[in-house]
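Reviewers of the previous submission asked for a worked example of the structure-prediction workflow described in the proposal, so we include one complete record here. The input consisted solely of the amino acid sequence. No template or homolog information was supplied to the procedure at any stage.
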Amino acid sequence: MGTYSVDEKALKAGKPRFLFRKAWHDPGKKRFLGREVEGGDEVLEILADHPATYGRLARKLLAYYFAPDPEPALEV
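From that input alone, the workflow returned the following structure tokens.
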């Protein structure tokens, strides 16, 4: 599903966006975390529903905004 990439020129211009790379596209169904998917939107839905996503996201935000190496008591 590596069909999209970051537009480096747009990123350097301060207007980040993604590009669809047709040559990289592999059509057809794929398996992601044990479920059959056809596109990136389905992958995002699976990740949003996965219980580990919230803890990982919380740790990342905590490390970025508060403490790069947080105490275990602060982690979710």
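The CA atoms of residues 55 and 76 lie 6 Å apart. We consider this example representative of the routine output the project will generate in years two and three.
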